[in-house]
Write a structure and sequence with these properties.
Low-confidence stretches: none
Structural class: alpha+beta
Number of strands: 9
Strand content: 25-35%
Oligomer: single chain
Mean pLDDT: 93
Number of helices: 7
Shape: globular
Distance between the termini: 38 Å
Largest sheet: 9 strands, antiparallel
Radius of gyration: 18 Å
Length: about 220
C-alpha cells in the first residue's frame, strides 16, 4: 500500500512574537491538542523547531490517504489562526526503493523514536539520467548508497527517499533523521564525490529542524 509523506513549514508573525509568555503557551497548547487529537488519522507525525530564517515550525507527517494530510494542514492553520502561515510544503510517495534495507516494513520505518535533528529537501535530476540504461543507473545508485552507509559518521543517520513525480515542483523529497548535525554535514560533503551527483539539478531549499517533544512555539 502506498504511503503519502508531507512536509509543512510554518512562519510565525509579529503578532505571535509580541504575545506575552502566557499567550504563547496558549497558542502552543492549541496546536498540540489538535495534533494529539488528529494522530489517529495518520501513520506518524513529528514536529520540529526550524532553524531557517523563513520558517519557525516544521511538521513531518505520513498517511495512507492524502485527504488526511490536507485536513492536518487545515487544522494547523486553524490552531495558529492569525499568528502564522504556511510558507512551504512537499508532498511525496514513500514506497519500496533501493535505499530501504531488506526486510524492513515501510510503516515500521516511520514509527521509530525521533532523533535530535531533521533534514529535508526537494531534489530533481537532469533528463539525461532517465535515458541511461536501468541496470547502469542501479549500479550508480548502489555506489552512492555504499558510500553513504560505509562512512564512519553515518551510523546515527536515518534516510528516507520519496517520490514526487507529478505531485510537486520536485521529483524527489529526501529526508533524514540525525543525532549530530556536524556528522551529517561531513557525510553530505563526502557524497559530493560520488558519480550519481553528476545528474542532480536541484536540492534547495534545505530545511533543518530541532526536535522538541512538547513545545512547538515558546
Amino acid at each position: 500500500m502506498t504511503i503519502y509523506m508531507y512536509v509543512l513549514a510554518y512562519k510565525l508573525n509579529g503578532q505571535f512574537w509580541s504575545l506575552d509568555p502566557e499567550g504563547k503557551k496558549s497558542v502552543n497548547k492549541k496546536l498540540i491538542d489538535f495534533i494529539n487529537g488528529f494522530k489517529k488519522n495518520l501513520i506518524s507525525i513529528k514536529y520540529y523547531k526550524s532553524v531557517r530564517h523563513d520558517n519557525d515550525i516544521l511538521f513531518w507527517s505520513t498517511a495512507y490517504e492524502p485527504i488526511n494530510l490536507e485536513k492536518l494542514k487545515e487544522g494547523i492553520n486553524s490552531a495558529l489562526g492569525i499568528y502564522g502561515d504556511s510558507t512551504y510544503s512537499m508532498l511525496s510517495l514513500y514506497e519500496d526503493s533501493p535505499y530501504i534495507k531488506e526486510g524492513k516494513n515501510l510503516e515500521d520505518t516511520l514509527k521509530t523514536d525521533p532523533k535530535k535533528y531533521f533534514v529535508a529537501y526537494p531534489m530533481s535530476k537532469d533528463r539525461e539520467w532517465y535515458l541511461i540504461n536501468y541496470e547502469e543507473r542501479r549500479k550508480i545508485l548502489a555506489g552512492h548508497i555504499g558510500t553513504a552507509r560505509g562512512d564512519k559518521e553515518s551510523s546515527g543517520i536515518l534516510s528516507y527517499t520519496t517520490y514526487s513525480f507529478g505531485l510537486g515542483d520536485q521529483e524527489f523529497v529526501v529526508l533524514y533523521e540525525v543525532e549530530d548535525l556536524a556528522a551529517w554535514s561531513h557525510v553530505t560533503e563526502k557524497l559530493r564525490e560520488v558519480l550519481a551527483r553528476k545528474w542532480i539539478t536541484n536540492e534547495t531549499p534545505i530545511f533543518v529542524g530541532i526536535y522538541n517533544n512538547d513545545d512547538l512555539v515558546d
